[in-house]
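Quiz preparation item.
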């Protein structure tokens, strides 16, 4: 049944298939159901008992052992939508979300695509075409050039010529990719050939296209991105910025909004530039324009993500705008419903990505069973997660377990709230990056608001890792002792084996005498 709010829409729908998995599938399923619509999930063998399948109104099985057979199989997903009665498809992020051919196939099947047009995805998804369109539209870009060389040719001469024009240090980037894949920093000419070949190989393996883009590397810069919303009637607004400067090997770690580096005047200028970029490709839906902010205050276009971002919750927290709900409204043909003047900033929000990984051994992904999974809760705390207690964490998918988001009246209040929430996050059975996140969050460089994109890569890992016993090990021992009736939990809880952040009244490592459900 079409919900009341959509009855006047030009293209109404009542059932949405979520073409994704994990925490983003859970997030979208919740929004779809809150909107009064029916949510359909898809799943493969490893996900048959996953949280997103339990939450959905219906789940459709996709056979096959590889991603290409299920979550990356556009034909199978469209067939799943048809067989389940879904009238619209939401791609989430990752997988097929930025594949123009998938968006086009969905449109041609008669199913509503909850996202931008295939043309916009195609233009902005390729760094070369996106750069050209931005130059035509007057959007500032970083100096750079494309390098596409046949496998059987000697590319050193061409590379050296391009590098000389661009200047060192430079960044090699996969033209068709993103998310840090196919990216290599070259600081001196002698490393050019080696790093180019490595970037091209990775780009070809990840995206099926070995074309590499050469770009000037801006050191000491901030990574600022602007959230935009646009409808089918030419209305386009921005919802302020997110600061994603705390990243490791081009992978975002902690994101926040607003940015401490962006003034009101700069915010307006960056926002207007993002809207200009979106209008240059007749963008419709939710999207993000990523910019680099240099130390002298100049900013440059990096790329546009034609989908929902992992870090979208911090924007929702400070603006009060539900981005997924807006995606549903726009896809149904309704006008935007909000003006630029009505967008405001309330307080400060920070997001930390909880990964199953071991920071002590190069952030290698960790596997195991989530024997105990107790996310924190309370005022100003939000947890977007796709796992539950008892789940097996494997190497089949991305190791992100959850996103922990907080909102508070000020930046320092948000930092304190997030640190407390992280200290109360109980995840046993799998090694996580929670300790690393706490140390990064409370590092003087972060608390002072002076983080740049190269901070983590240029700072010794020892500054973020405690040499004391892993608290999760202590909790495991204490829990086992309690269940065995040894009566040792109280003494362990009162011992000095705690991390540098322990001591607050809610620290789980000082309250082990309580009963775990």
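Solution:
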């Amino acid at each position: 049944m079409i919900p009341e709010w959509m009855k006047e829409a030009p293209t109404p729908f009542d059932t949405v298939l979520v073409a994704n998995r994990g925490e983003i599938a859970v997030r979208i399923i919740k929004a779809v159901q809150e909107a009064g619509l029916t949510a359909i999930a898809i799943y493969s063998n490893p996900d048959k008992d996953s949280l997103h399948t339990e939450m959905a109104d219906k789940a459709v099985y996709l056979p096959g052992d590889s991603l290409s057979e299920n979550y990356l199989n556009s034909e199978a997903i469209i067939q799943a939508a048809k067989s389940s009665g879904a009238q619209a498809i939401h791609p989430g992020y990752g997988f097929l979300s930025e594949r123009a051919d998938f968006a086009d196939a969905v449109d041609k099947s008669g199913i509503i695509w909850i996202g931008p047009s295939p043309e916009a995805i195609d233009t902005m998804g390729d760094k070369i075409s996106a750069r050209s369109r931005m130059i035509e539209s007057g959007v500032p870009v970083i100096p750079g050039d494309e390098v596409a060389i046949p496998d059987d040719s000697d590319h050193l001469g061409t590379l050296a010529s391009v590098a000389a024009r661009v200047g060192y240090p430079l960044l090699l980037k996969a033209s068709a990719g993103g998310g840090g894949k196919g990216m290599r920093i070259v600081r001196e000419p002698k490393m050019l050939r080696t790093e180019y070949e490595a970037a091209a190989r990775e780009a070809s393996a990840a995206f099926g296209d070995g074309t590499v883009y050469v770009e000037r590397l801006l050191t000491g810069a901030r990574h600022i991105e602007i959230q935009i919303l646009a409808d089918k009637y030419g209305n386009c607004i921005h919802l302020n910025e997110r600061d994603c400067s705390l990243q490791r090997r081009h992978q975002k770690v902690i994101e926040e909004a607003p940015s401490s580096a962006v003034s009101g005047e700069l915010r307006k200028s960056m926002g207007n530039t993002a809207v200009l970029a979106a209008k240059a490709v007749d963008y419709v839906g939710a999207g993000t324009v990523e910019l680099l902010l240099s130390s002298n205050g100049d900013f440059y276009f990096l790329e546009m993500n034609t989908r929902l971002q992992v870090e979208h919750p911090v924007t929702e927290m400070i603006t009060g705008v539900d981005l997924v709900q807006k995606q549903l409204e726009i896809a149904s043909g309704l006008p935007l419903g909000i003006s630029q003047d009505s967008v405001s900033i309330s307080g400060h929000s920070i997001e930390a990505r909880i990964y199953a990984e071991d920071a002590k051994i190069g952030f290698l992904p960790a596997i195991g069973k989530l024997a105990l999974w107790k996310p924190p809760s309370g005022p100003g705390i939000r947890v977007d997660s796709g796992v539950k207690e008892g789940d097996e964490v494997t190497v089949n998918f991305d190791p992100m377990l959850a996103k922990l988001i907080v909102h508070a009246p000020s930046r320092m209040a948000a930092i304190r709230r997030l640190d407390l929430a992280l200290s109360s996050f109980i995840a046993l059975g799998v090694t996580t990056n929670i300790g690393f996140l706490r140390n990064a969050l409370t590092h003087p460089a972060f608390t002072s608001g002076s983080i740049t994109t190269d901070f983590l890569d240029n700072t010794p890992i020892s500054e973020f890792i405690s040499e004391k016993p892993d608290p999760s090990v202590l909790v495991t021992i204490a829990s086992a002792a309690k269940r065995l009736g040894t009566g040792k939990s109280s003494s362990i809880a009162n011992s000095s084996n705690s991390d540098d952040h322990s001591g607050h009244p809610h620290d789980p490592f000082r309250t082990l005498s309580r009963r775990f459900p």
